[in-house]
Amino acid sequence: MQNRDKFTTSRGVMTATLGSAVGLGNIWKFPYFTGKNGGAAFIIIYLICVVLAGLPVMISEFVIGRRANSNPVGAFKKLAPGTAWHAIGYSGIAASFLIMLFYTGVAGWVYSYIFRAISGNFINASPEITREVFGKLITSSYEPIIWQIIVLVVVSSIIIAGVQKGIERMTKALMPLLFVLLLLCDIRALTLPGALNGVEFLFKPDFTKLTREVVIIALGLAFFKLSVGMGTMVTYGSYFDKTQNLPGTAVKVALSDILVSMMAGLAIFPAVFAFGFEPDAGPGLLFITIPMVFSKMPLGNILLAIFFLLTAIAATTAMMSLLEVPVAYLVEEKGCPRTKATLMSAATIALLGSTASLSADTGSLLGGIKIFGKTFFDLYDYISSNILMPMGGLFTVIFIVWVLGKTNLERELSNNGRLNNESVVNLFYIIVKYISPLLIILIFLDSIGILKF
Ligand code: TRP
Questions:
Q1: How high is the mean pLDDT in each 10-residue block of the chain (453 residues)?
Q2: What is the pTM of this model?
Q3: Does the Cβ of 94 fall within 6 Å of ligand 1?
Q4: Domain 10-447: CATH architecture, name and number where available
Q5: Cβ atoms < 10 Å from Cβ of 427
Q6: 319 neighbors 107 (Cβ within 8 angstroms)
Q7: Ligand 1 mean position, distance from CA 17 (Å)
Q8: Is 78 exposed, middle or buried (0-12, 13-18, 19+ CB in 10 A)?
Q9: Which of 149, 154, 249, 351 has CA 20 to 30 A from 101's CA?
Q10: Per-domain residue ranges of the chain
């Protein structure tokens, strides 16, 4: 058997896995959804979704990856030879490509904003100006593509360097840096006069806002946030050591990820409210509201550059985990050299990704083209987040219970009896057997409109 590259330390496992979870989702999805959907009340629903669906799928993926010691397609082939289960692996590869198509585009905008902030583009900017700057960027026919290619070059170089020398080494350095930069932004935002309104927006529990839709949003977010349902964690799990505590790692990653999301919210909303603006989500929040708000503070430009730098770090470490999925597949299943596999995947993304980055807004070049009423950008997001990921997660937990079976599971989760965690394993088994599948099926049917409660 070929000698596989692996994460060498437990800390490396943590930073790499957390690096995958922490991404654009923490900055432009979580804080906004929380504020809009009942603050602390939403956080409670989100935590329930994490515990009952996100974490169980993450742990299941770790188990599959580490046990098979292989990429998602190879892993299911090894654990269930002669069956069709490896289709889950292919679906994961497809999903990671689709996510990469729009994610690399947005990351490109983020990269470009670091330089825009430093060069003073936003000093004392009015809403009209920040709106115009963003509009110009995304309607340009070449600029977004150039930035997207720069992003792909950065991510590819790290992936080519390898699991240990690339992913592990980079995330070990970058994740602490991200945390410190975020802390800086928090301190600045929370010491602004009127900051408390933003804290209230984020945390004040309002249980009247909890509707069925909110539960769907929370589940989708839990999957996207934790990078589960598409083989990413199978791939990373295959690089874990046999002594790594799988449930423990998953819990730590999920908790740290929530902490980062809340810190991002505390960097953004106090400032938004302090200057009397309305909270927004997605591209609007990140590329129009934030530059305007931050530029109003003393030394705001530096802070803005710091903010986009930390967002770029978050997006970059998340993209490493996305690109690693097809690369691991090509290397192990197709015998392709790592460099070639990476360059081929990146080139495909660059080629097709321009359809996403040029269609992100109705005013942009391809924005007028609609498929099923969605732009390319939204279509890639919808197919991956609302269809492939819930399906992948569902089949993964079904596989764990009905194919792998309880005995193997107990062995894997307790590291062959070395960890004394019987009660954790039993609880996990009940959740993956009964609760996660039911929850995912109900929410999936509802979200694609087959079932209406
Ligand atoms: N978790 C990342 C975020 O919040 C996105 C991400 C990276 C992802 N890898 C993934 C989502 C794999 C789903 C599957 O931005």
A1: 84 98 93 86 93 96 97 97 96 92 93 93 84 88 91 98 97 97 93 90 89 84 93 97 96 97 92 82 82 84 94 98 98 97 96 76 64 76 82 95 95 94 94 95 78 59
A2: 0.93
A3: no
A4: Up-down Bundle (1.20)
A5: 13
A6: yes
A7: 10
A8: middle
A9: 249
A10: 10-447
